[in-house]
Amino acid sequence: MESRQATPVIDIRGVTKRFGETVAVDDVSFQVHRGEVLGFLGPNAAGKTTTMRILTCYLAPDEGTAAVAGFDIFENPVEVRRRIGYLPESAPLYLDMGVLDHLRFVAEVRGISQNDIESRVDDMIDVCGLQAVLSKDVGELSKGFRQRVGLAITMIHDPDILILDEPTTGLDPSQIIEIRELIRTIGSEKTVILSTHILPEVEATSTRVLIINEGRLVASGTPGELASMAMGDDRVVVTLRGPAADLEAALLALPHATGVEVTGAEPDGFVRFGLLSDDATGLADAVFDLARDRGLRLRELRRETASLEDIFLKLTRMDDSDEVTE
Ligand SMILES: Nc1ncnc2c1ncn2[C@@H]1O[C@H](COP(=O)(O)OP(=O)(O)O)[C@@H](O)[C@H]1O
Ligand SMILES: [Mg+2]
Question: What pLDDT is recorded for position 319?
């Protein structure tokens, strides 16, 4: 998993940050390479924002350091910031400014030369799809369009690296899809770190995922690699008709069954079970044989491969999936 390329674009080593008793970030090290879209996934208070603020030189770590495009965050913060576009959790926008004026204003503040401002602004209007709202004030825009303006501002100085903190929080489902598409488009040309507590977000956008919990990195890999870590925990879902307790005992006695729970009941006497297994294929065959041999009615029988979500829940020990998937 370590670098194939020589120099990582982002290189964080042993970073720790405390706030009083709270260890917000605890000995975190990772690298990001050119062209990656890194999903930084973790529940609330995991340390995502703190890590991003350290990388963007808004916060100094207590221990460790980081380099961005080869520049150390302590020694060359100006060079680091020049190469990064940072979209914080709530984008700092002037609501009473017109969209076009806002883009021009930020371009000036960012020190883009007068000759280049119009072409940079035009590029951002194009990339972020802002043509239709140019004459409006930012305050009049939907949240989805505000986030597009936020992204345009974040990229106006054409940074190679984007750091996006929970970029779809507060958007409605269709806006979420649009912003994810935009991030994918941008990600084909730039190196991106995006944080989220929403699992489908990293599956939709990221080439690699880091899972952080209570300040510590707990897993790293492609979405597929992380899901395959859950192998051995494969499940079989089965719906049979009969008395729940009898069926439960019979299912648990089958070869390859390592656990069983009742997950639902239907009004016509069918009971649904979730089975844990060390070999889901073998267990599914055994369930079929059981139903045939005993003349049981079988309504449903399928294998469920562990998903990234299972891994996430396991690693972050959260039982309420609503809290992490929204
Ligand atoms: N400025 C601060 N002062 C005190 N505690 C903070 C501060 N910033 C973050 N924390 C604490 O650090 C932990 C990590 O926070 P944060 O990095 O914002 O997590 P995330 O972005 O993953 O939700 C939390 O417990 C949070 O309360
Ligand atoms: Mg945060």
Answer: 44
